[in-house]
Design goal:
It contains 15 helices and 14 strands. It is an alpha+beta fold.
Length: about 450
């Protein structure tokens, strides 16, 4: 009996020592995968709580844990509503990730935990006011709808709207003719565009091209590229995702894109550090790092930190009346133009309307002539898949839109977890579909767009 007790005691002691060592390791040097997970959880909760006004526990459970990596189910969060910060960590103890809200700029991940510096980067930047759309004016000038009954059956079909839908808006001939919202969401809820943000980012460069402050052929973009072959990369190469830069866009583990978004305080510096894997202009490679570099390009062109940080609001959101729109920055104050823009469904539709207008708004040209056409024109290296300015030629699923009977000139803005905006210039139609719809569910927004196009082609 005594020998048995001694064995049990040694086993318990050994287990305690193991747990102590493992716990110390997780505290002192947590695996990067855990840090990516906690950084992701903190950032998503922060933006949805302080921008969209959602319940933090619902965001953690619904947006972070349910669709994500199994490790995310072990994440716990602490939300400081007074300080407007969020910390997430494994089991509430290990590998903490941080995010902080900054008025006018949404939330930023704070990988190094330096909340003071993260706030100081934008604290002194005044943003131009964006007028609220009046209720007595039709959309897009105001909030008034022009609903078309021909869309009733399409917008009432759950199969067409897809699982996890949060917001749908249909634009036809410059008016909002139909919309639907998922439970708990409305026309007032800012929603994350994920990679739909890339096209807005491209439009900001287009604004500077219209003002002759940037050129598509401009090279020698960054000082750290001087003296090597990367100096030959042009803005056009970056816009078309054919820069030749090495970058791993895979998700789910610690890769270049997850490291950049959740572990790097200075995302643009990290994205610029990669070598070439092929000559510029020769190979298509979809890369969120490339979009971050485009953010740095347009901000550098303005030559002034205050003007650069105010530019999305001044150059795009205010003219279009996108009052809800917020483009978030990294910890150092560079816009995360690859992924982090929030706006209501109606404001995302206002951006789509700008493209239907061929880059003009209220008689003023905001984008250069031909810029929107370039969005719908395949880039030279993409094999017909990707446009020349941060858009997709076909919808998700690696199938041509012709399989769904969509007009030939349809092009797309697409983002993670089912974000999609289809622009159909020949029919003067745009369809915005936002939600939480992981790709594994196999949803195809092409069916929704086809239903809208067909319905609006019928006689009243």
């Amino acid at each position: 009996m005594g020998r048995y007790l001694r064995i049990v005691a040694r086993t318990v002691l050994g287990g305690a020592v193991f747990l102590a060592v493992a716990g110390s390791w997780l505290i002192v040097s947590p695996p990067e995968l855990l840090r990516v997970g906690s950084g992701y959880a903190a950032k998503i909760v922060c933006s949805n709580v302080f921008l969209a006004g959602r319940d933090p526990q619902d965001v953690l459970a619904t947006d972070v844990q349910a669709p994500g990596h199994p490790l995310l189910r072990l994440m716990r969060q602490s939300v400081d509503h007074e300080d407007k910060t969020v910390t997430a960590s494994l089991l509430g103890i290990f590998a903490p990730g941080h995010a902080a809200y900054r008025e006018g700029f949404g939330c930023t991940g704070v990988p190094d935990g330096d909340f003071v510096t993260a706030r100081q980067t934008v604290a002194d930047v005044p943003l131009p006011p964006v007028a609220a759309p009046p209720a007595d004016r039709p959309w897009p000038e105001g909030k008034g709808e022009s609903y078309d009954p021909r869309l009733d059956a399409v917008l009432a079909d759950p199969a067409l709207l897809g699982p996890g839908v949060r917001g749908v808006a249909v634009i036809h001939n410059g008016r909002l003719v139909g919309e639907r919202y998922g439970d708990g969401f409305s026309e007032e809820t800012p929603l994350l565009g994920w990679s739909v943000s890339k096209t807005v980012n491209a439009a900001l460069l287009g604004r500077l091209m219209q003002d002759h402050r940037l050129s598509p052929t401009q090279a020698n973009l960054f000082a750290e590229w001087n003296g090597d072959a990367r100096a030959k990369i042009t803005i056009a190469d970056l816009l078309a995702m054919q820069s030749g830069l090495e970058f791993n866009e895979d998700y789910g583990e610690v890769t270049d894109v997850t490291r950049m978004l959740f572990l790097e305080p200075n995302m643009a510096r990290y994205a610029a550090s990669f070598p070439l894997s092929s000559s510029p202009g020769e190979t298509f490679s979809y890369s969120s790092g490339t979009a971050i570099l485009l953010s740095r390009v347009f901000m550098s062109a303005l030559g002034d930190r205050w003007r650069a940080l105010a530019y999305p609001a001044a150059a795009l959101f205010a003219p279009l009346g996108m009052k809800s729109a917020v483009m978030e920055t990294d910890e150092t104050g560079i816009f995360v133009g690859s992924s982090y823009m929030y706006a209501t469904t109606r404001d995302w539709a206002r951006f789509a309307q700008l493209l239907l207008n061929d880059g003009t708004w209220n008689g003023m040209r905001l984008l250069p002539e031909g810029y929107v056409a370039a969005m719908g024109t395949p880039s030279s290296a993409s094999g017909g898949a990707y446009g020349q300015a941060q858009t997709w030629i076909d919808g998700p699923g690696r199938e041509p839109d012709s399989r769904y009977g969509l007009p030939d000139d349809t092009f797309w803005m697409l983002g993670h977890d089912g974000q999609a905006i289809a622009v159909v210039p020949s029919r003067n139609i745009a369809v915005v579909r936002l939600g939480l719809t992981p790709s594994r569910l196999g949803y195809r927004p092409q069916e929704l767009v086809r239903g809208v196009v067909d319905a609006l082609a019928t006689e009243d």
